[in-house]
Amino acid sequence: MAIDTHLTGGCFCGAVRFRLEASPLKIGVCHCQACKKLTGGTSWSFALVLADALHVSGEVREVTRMSESGYPVHVGFCPACGTTLASRSDHWAQFRTLSVGAFDETEGLTTSFHIWTKSAYPWEIMPEGARCFERHLPEKAPS
Ligand SMILES: [Zn+2]
Ligand SMILES: [Zn+2]
Fold first, then answer.
1. What is the 58 CA–ligand 1 centroid distance (Å)?
2. What separation, in Å, do the N-terminal and C-terminal C-alpha atoms of the chain show?
3. 101 alpha carbon to ligand 1 midpoint, in Å?
4. How far is CA 86 from the centre of its chain?
5. pLDDT confidence of 138, banded at 50, 70, 90?
6. Domain annotation for the chain: domains and CATH numbers
7. What pTM, to 2 d.p., does this model score?
8. How far is the CA of 52 from the centre of ligand 2 (A)?
9. Is 119 helix (H, G, I), strand (E, B) or coil?
10. How far is the CA of 7 from the centre of ligand 2 (A)?
């Protein structure tokens, strides 16, 4: 996924904006119950990025809960409009996951994998050839 442009994005109301200075490492889709709740949607498309490459302006508030993988995840959202923007975990402190739906543009981005497909709604059809995992990614993988 070689993209040199600086990707930008933000929340629904515009109070929070972000800019990425390096391409996302991966784009994943999570179908777990927690991601359904946090987006209010059927799944969460997220971009895995290096924390150092992410610049955020505006207030982001965090909610912490245990992930289905068994460690705490801190989810950041805009306190004004509620858009889910990002998450981080102490487990993978050097990474952030950003909501792909909050990007201004997604041209050139493609999905790398689907996780927690065992919780996917029956009407969610995985793309042919997609890398799918019933639960979390196997060992060590964001790579
Ligand atoms: Zn907002
Ligand atoms: Zn999830």
1. 9
2. 13
3. 13
4. 6
5. confident
6. 7-119 (2.170.150.70)
7. 0.87
8. 23
9. helix
10. 23
